[in-house]
Amino acid sequence: MSEAYHPVGPGLGLEENFLSLDDILMSQEKLPCRAESTLPRLAFALGQGAGTGDSIPEGSKLEIPLWLAKGLQDSKRRIISVELPNIFKEAWRTVFSADANVVDLHKMGPYYYGFGSQLLNFDNPENPEIAQTILQTFISRFRRIMDSSQNAYNEDTSALVARLDELERALFRTGQKGLNDFQCWEKGQASQITASSLVQNYGKRKFADTDG
């Protein structure tokens, strides 16, 4: 019996993949913003007023979903300005550079990597530092995540994954599945070892790029 839904991976870049449930959920994350001009008849929709005809005055502080902030972004007319969430500010970037493994990423934001990548869509002088911190955080935490996934066979892993963001949890599950498949093959419970879905998907994208 075929599955009703085949999971689609996140976009992992400046553009979301709207077939991905992870990206849909990530796009709902709130961004602190400031209205750079009056926003007519939007106060009620954004929880800032009681009537549907109320406007948001210039200079108002807002917290709006990422998808809406991207929609209001206009290179010709400045409608809103986006402020950095705390976890991407300099103070937290210093913490990450000291030891990224001590940070509870899921508590700070379950879509740290995807959300941080989306922030690069907005004009911010700190974008190069943000991109570098995201990359170095992933590199610093990757080996520990995969080592943990390979050394927790048939164990309760809830405590191990509690501090991971959703991308890291997906990597952990992939590592666990690979270990489980190998153990089954070693015990003669599987006919062959197959490539992981991550490797297969990467191969398909690489082939498509070459073909284009």
TrEMBL record:
It is found in: Chromosome; Nucleus. One of its GO terms (biological process) is mitotic DNA replication initiation. Pfam families: PSF3_N (PF22466), Sld5 (PF05916). Keywords: Chromosome, DNA replication, Nucleus. Residues 89-185 form the GINS subunit domain. Its main location: nucleus. It comes from the Eukaryota. GO terms for cellular component: GINS complex. Residues 20-72 form the DNA replication complex GINS protein PSF3 N-terminal domain. Signal peptide: none annotated. Gene3D superfamilies: 1.20.58.2050. Transmembrane segments: none annotated. Belongs to the GINS3/PSF3 family. The GINS complex plays an essential role in the initiation of DNA replication. Required for correct functioning of the GINS complex, a complex that plays an essential role in the initiation of DNA replication, and progression of DNA replication forks. GINS complex is a core component of CDC45-MCM-GINS (CMG) helicase, the molecular machine that unwinds template DNA during replication, and around which the replisome is built. Component of the GINS complex. This is DNA replication complex GINS protein PSF3. It comes from Podargus strigoides (Tawny frogmouth). The lineage of its organism: Eukaryota, Metazoa, Chordata, Craniata, Vertebrata. The gene is Gins3.
